[in-house]
Design goal:
10 helices; 8 strands; globular
Length: about 260
Amino acid sequence: MAIRCPIGFDSEYLRDRVYETYDRVAREPGGEFHFHRGLDYACEYLNYDRAELNALPAVSTTRFAGVANPHRIGRIESGQTVLDHACGAGMDLLLAAKRIGLRGNAIGVDMTEAMRECAKEGAGEAGLTDIVDIREGVYEELPVEDETIDVVISNGVINLAPDKEVVFKEIYRVLKPGGRLFLGDVVVQRELKLDARSSPDLWAACIAGALTERELPAIAGAAGFSDCAVTERFDCFRDTTAEVKVSKDLYVQGVNFFARKV
């Protein structure tokens, strides 16, 4: 299982590679990467609403690199507190902020400084600085108090985590009782071989650390979540360099996944 990295795995090297990759996305969103990015990708591959995205600042939409569409999982209500878990340049965060209105609170956490700056700039351009709060942090230690969040959204991040049990427990910790997780992430249909899972480069490509689809509800349930279910699937790596790195029988894809804190 890919719940945690193999013994001897260089997790610090992985973190450095991930930081380097998304720092470059923030600075050069039109550069060459192993994954798709941007507004057209979000609409054509992941079923985002084009009119909604056209209304957001380009500084956020051009740097979008998610793998699914958490906003299709459930409703975000006016006045709620939402956490975007590894928010990047903030496209999903700004969509959530528009839904919660002036009585709500939208918190974005990201470890990459350049991405946080883009998210802040986007919030300012969108006129949402009063309700958007961008914080420095990592998914193993979220800078958020216990049981303060109504909805956690996350898009394409957990596959990068060396220890996914820790990440799911952190999400569970910050959610209020009855709070919901709207997760987009990468899954595979069978586990990779050990040599592939031992490669930080393949982890940084969002593939080697991906859970199998059956493992995703199992690990969420072990962290305390209920009502765990995959709700939609996306061919997010179609025509990318990441697609050619793996065997076809892995069926690498993005999924929407719902869970609720008991």
